[in-house]
Amino acid sequence: MKRMSLRPHQVEAVDSVLRILSEQPGKGVPPEGLRTQVIAATGSGKTLIGVEVTNRLSARRVLVLVPTLDLLLQMATAWRRGGRRGAMVGVCSLRGADSQGVPCTTDPDELVTWTAGPETVTVFATYASIGLGILQRAHSAGLPVWDLMVVDEAHRTSGDAGRPWAAVHDQAQLPAVRRLYMTATARVWEAEGDRPRLVASMDEDSPVFGPVAYKLKLSEAIRLGLVAPYQVLCLDIRDPELHAALTTTEMVAAGSDMVRGARLAAVQAGLMRAAVEERVRRVLSFHSRVSEAEAMAVALPAVAGRLAQESPDTFLPAEQVWADWLYGEHPPSRRREVLEEFASDFLGGKQFEGRDVPAKLRVLSSVRVLGEGVDTANCDAVLFADARGSMIDIVQMVGRALRMEPGAGKMATLIVPVFLGPDEDPNELLTSDAYGTLAKILGALRAHDTETVEALADPRVRSSRPASGEQAGEERLLHDGAEAEGQEGARVRAAAAGVLRFSEERDPAALTQFVRLRVIDPEGTYWRRGIEAAVRWLRETGNTELRVPYVYVTPEDWGAAGSYPLGVFISDQRRYYAADTLEAGRVAELEALGMVWSVQASAWEAGLAVARSYADAHGHFLPPASAVWGGDGFPIGGWAKNQRAAARKTRENATRRDAGETGLSYAGELSQERMEALDAVDPGWAPQGWDVAWQRCYRLTLAHTRAGGTLPAAAGELIVQGEDLGTWIAGQKAGWEQLTPAQRFLLETVGIEPTAADEAAVPGRRSQDERWAVHLAAARQYHAREGHLRVPRKHTETVRAGGDGKDSDGCQETPVKLGAWIDNTRRRAAKLSLERRAHLDALGLRW
Q1: Which of 41, 81, 306, 695 could connect to 221 by a Cys-Cys bridge, CB 3.0–4.6 Å?
Q2: Which fold would CATH assign to domain 227-422?
Q3: What is d(CA 782, CA 765) in angstroms, rounded to the nearest whole number?
């Protein structure tokens, strides 16, 4: 296979990445590893950049992470074509012919075996395999450190979108010497009501992602001929049948089959007209329902035939229209076959009795497939039949149209239906629901090309493409702009001219307002509502300072300020202020309301609020250290770890003070008030005597059995919140003797007991009452000797006791972990019988 050569921008990117990922003399590699980012336009060849970086670093063990199975297979082929040698392994569920020759596994031990030895190996894994803990368990089983980890579509691992895969960044779970994060869309906004939120944000110079080594904006990639220029074509649809369907069914169900069918028929007719007028040849049509994607493909040739009969000079005949569909559950072989037909120039004989008929229009409908990075460079148009998916999915759909073979010279067309009522004014863009999809699509485009979309809000930019005779006017626009604002600003406006087009004319002023307020500046609306909500909160609560709990949402009956996430808004402003990105005017406005800027002063309240939210959702407050939670991606795992450390220090110092030790500092301890607040969230939030991971698995197992579930018999049989409970239970049985008595007791309460062999290894196994008696005897012995029951946490008391717990001659000595037992007993005080509590009260135990 001929090795692909690098283009100039790729050479520049590789050199920049190597400067950051190469070890500096005398400095070595930091504990978190070397990290950097490449942010480059979709279709600009980021994959080849990653391959060349790997080759230049002579990285022997490489992990490549991707979001989908389709992209995994495409990546393996691209890396081989780019010159990568050695074994290639997939961590995914593909098998047989579907894996295209790439050996794949989901067994951690098998992965360790396959990648053992000194040979070069490249492992391709999906993010889902990380969510299931496959790679993490492989590392626990002996998988060595990666020389390089390449994280493709890395925006998926940030913010809200990255919660299931936070282990990507964690050296303890996925150790790597170097990490290379690559994406085309480092920041993706999504509007929730009036509140925009960042669903993906890879901040520059972030300690998580590292500094940006190379950045190629979409506008620059278009100028270089790497990516197609684009236009947004709005199909103004005034369909009488659709309007009739909406009118007759609005009292029944707005989403009825009749409405969806009429809507789809109108979209098909609009597409056929646009195909002729815009000369598009290959269209990807995105849907949110499988039934609609299939119906689009099945009915389109018939619609084409009907329209061609009515107007043969305007529409394509049915025999020149090819249509098919795909969805996420289709096997890879089916996807490859359909994509090959989509890329070909003939119908292939499937619909027209074996004749190779040239197809002038090919339409491929899809649902939850053809996602990130999948190569569809032959597509010259994307139809958004509906846009009910997440903003990240829509951003990726936009990227499908922008890809092209270098030098192909195509114009990418994004087709957006706008369903207008029979008498609806097309200029009511600010208030009409008909433009919701368009606002989403322009928001997605903004993630790719911020400058051009924001230029659409300039009233000097026209909303129609200039004809050839208007070239002089175009040049005057460029010249005038250059005089007023500089060459770059005028160039951006000139590029934006004609990007947004409608079937019917629009008032330029209304269009400018629409882009500014519904696409670019929903954040301005968010700010104004936030200030209104803050003023109302101060008035209603009587507070003089803006110390608002993180999860606080204003009541619905507050009018314009109702149902607003005020706690998150206040937290956002603190974060912007700390980063010195909050405008001076906004700072003054907040300070006039009594804003508390210190994040530390409010960090506890914010953390506690998120802790309650996390516990409500998960059934416990035992998050892993890497966990993030909440709409703003609060690092709840790290926060909880810090609180546990403070609680541990508090307990240890209390024991030392009780023992008479002096001079101990209270710095870093957790106050009794805060300890009680966290205990109210989850009494087991800070386990003593074992780690949080053990406690989390136990609690998940307990919840499963209480819900009527049965214990798993094998690894992989039951995975809850990323924890393989089957593997964990087997480990407890195998290591029963290493467990504390309290751990054994807890396991027995959920039906986990050692195997027969383990039982035999524990001579004289006692009942729960007998074990209580032995520990009580140890407590009495300690009290008789020391005069108190302030037992150090790690103290072990040796007693001579028989099966009844009473001292007796000839009985063997029994070590009892008295300090741990005392602490555990305190925690279970509410569940003790009155008799047992009285025994300990008699010994002066401080509860």
Answers
A1: 41
A2: Rossmann fold (3.40.50)
A3: 24
DSSP 736: G
- pLDDT tens digits for range 55-112: 999 999 999 999 888 889 889 999 999 999 999 999 998 888 888 889 999 999 999 9
Q: Of 49, 7, 46, 77, which is closest to residue 186 (Cα–Cα)?
A: 46
Task: Give yes or no on whether 8-216 and 227-422 have one common fold.
Answer: yes
**DSSP letter (8 states) at residue 50:** H
pLDDT for res 807 = 45
CB 157, CB 169: distance < 8 Å: yes
> Rounded to whole angstroms, what are the CA distances from 400 to 64, 500, 639?
21, 18, 39
Higher-confidence position of 487 and 595: 595
Residue 4's pLDDT is 67
H or E stretch covering 236: strand 230-237
Give the helix/strand (H/E) hosting 547.
none
Domain 8-216, what architecture?
Answer: 3-Layer(aba) Sandwich (3.40)
The mean pLDDT of 119-129, rounded to a whole number, is 93
Enumerate the β-bridge partners of residue 237. 419
**756, burial (CB in 10 Å: exposed 0-12, middle 13-18, buried 19+):** exposed
Based on C-alpha coordinates, what's the Rg of the chain? 32
Token pair in block for residue 748: 């027995």
Cβ neighbours of residue 199 under 8 Å, at least 6 residues apart?
A: 159, 160, 161, 188, 189, 190, 390, 391, 392
**Rounded mean pLDDT, 724-739:** 89
> Averaged over 710-729, what is the pLDDT?
89
Average pLDDT of the residues in 512-530: 77
pLDDT of residue 145: 95
Contacts of 102 (CB under 8 A, 6+ apart): 72, 73, 76, 88, 89, 90, 94, 124
Six-digit token pair at 790?
Answer: 């302030």
Q: Who's near 60: CB < 8 A, 6+ residues apart?
A: 86, 118, 119, 120, 121, 147
Burial of 310 (0-12, 13-18, 19+ CB in 10 A): exposed
Q: Integer distance in angstroms from the first to the last C-alpha of the chain?
A: 74
Which of these ranges, 144-148, 555-559, 797-801, has the smallest mean pLDDT?
Answer: 797-801
Measured distance CA(132)–CA(16) in Å, rounded: 34
pLDDT at 756 (0 to 100): 53
Task: Please give the Cα distance from 847 to 823 (Å, whole number).
Answer: 9
d(CA 289, CA 264) in angstroms, rounded, equals: 12
Question: Tokens representing 786?
Answer: 């020391």
b/e 551-580 (16+ beta carbons within 10 angstroms → b): bbebeeebeebeebbbbbbbbbbbeebeee
